[in-house]
Structures are given as C-alpha cells and as structure tokens.
C-alpha cells in the first residue's frame, strides 16, 4: 500500500510505503490526515495504516529546471491524448524526427497514438500537412508532481484538489 506525503504547506511531496509513513508518524515527524481500512500488524499491536500524511516541518525541494523528459512525463503533460488526432496516446513522437536532426527535448516530444506515430514515421509535419494543436514545452517547475500521481488513489483526491487550489 502506498501513502501520499504532503509537505507542511499541503503540497504533494512524494509517495512512500505505508510502513515508511507509519514510522514518520510514530517518530513525530508527520500527522495522519487519512487512513486505510486495513491496519498494519506489528508484533504487539495493530497500527492504523496511513493513506495520507502531513509533514510537521516544511521540506525545501529545489527544482530549478524540469528533469529530462520521459515517455511517462510527456504523456502526463499532454493529458494522454494524441497531439495529432486527440485519441488516447500510449507512445511519444519526435515532432522533428531524430533522423532529421530532432532531439529528445521537451520542445520536440509529444504524446502520440500508435496509428499517427506509424503514419508520421520520419516525415515532418509540413510534408504531411499536419499541425500541432499546442506548442510543446517543459512544464513549469511548480507543476511537478510525483509520478505515482498519474493514477492517484481515491482517498488522495481531496488532498490533491486542495493542493492544486493554492
């Protein structure tokens, strides 16, 4: 089971195992904001299993520039929709093909469905008469979220909604 860790300012910081979260709570470093139904069994007791914890002290995270793009991060940025046809996307495409000198940067990678990826091949958008519905760019550093939040647990949703409204 996984536990959402919120920084002292209620922004999502990471996702850890529920055992790690319980240790943080037992050492007085965090408070439980939401629990799971199944407790953690210790040799002497049953301990409530934390689903969401809040750190007591703010942890400063330096994110001056976004990390290098990954397939997962490009799909997340583009809402898992093909940039060319708006169908569900599972792959990424180089707007300027690598065979034509394109790099693997935030500005040259977009989410793409398998059909469009196969049709595009190593052609340019001009050669196909295609256009991009958006300008691909690196996400701002304050938009960073743990990758586990690609598929958040239901119990986390009120805390993620709270974090995004600040």
Automatic annotation (TrEMBL):
- Where would I find the HNH nuclease domain in this sequence? 69-118
Q: Which Gene3D superfamilies match?
A: 1.10.30.50
User: GO: which molecular function terms?
Assistant: endonuclease activity
Q: Which controlled-vocabulary keywords does the entry list?
A: Endonuclease, Hydrolase, Nuclease
Task: Return the InterPro entries for the record.
Answer: HNH_5 (IPR029471), HNH_nuc (IPR003615), NA-targeting_endonuclease (IPR052892)
Decide whether keyword Nuclease is in the record.
yes
Q: Which domain of life is it from?
A: Bacteria
Q: What protein name does the entry list?
A: 5-methylcytosine-specific restriction endonuclease McrA
Species source reads: Nesterenkonia sandarakina
| Phylogenetic placement of the source organism | Bacteria, Bacillati, Actinomycetota, Actinomycetes, Micrococcales
């Amino acid at each position: 089971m996984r536990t959402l860790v919120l920084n002292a300012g209620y922004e999502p910081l990471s996702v850890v195992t529920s055992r790690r979260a319980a240790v943080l709570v037992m050492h007085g470093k965090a408070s439980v904001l939401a629990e799971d139904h199944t407790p953690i069994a210790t040799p002497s007791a049953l301990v409530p299993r934390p689903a969401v914890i809040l750190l007591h002290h703010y942890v400063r995270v330096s994110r001056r520039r976004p990390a290098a793009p990954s397939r997962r991060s490009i799909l997340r940025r583009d809402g898992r929709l093909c940039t060319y046809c708006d169908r569900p996307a599972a792959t990424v495409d180089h707007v300027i093909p690598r065979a034509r000198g394109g790099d693997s940067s935030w500005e040259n990678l977009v989410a793409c469905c398998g059909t469009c990826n196969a049709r595009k091949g190593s052609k340019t958008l001009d050669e196909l008469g295609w256009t991009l519905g958006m300008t691909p760019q690196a996400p701002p550093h304050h938009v960073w979220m743990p990758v586990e939040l690609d598929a958040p647990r239901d119990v986390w949703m009120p805390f993620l909604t709270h974090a995004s409204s600040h």
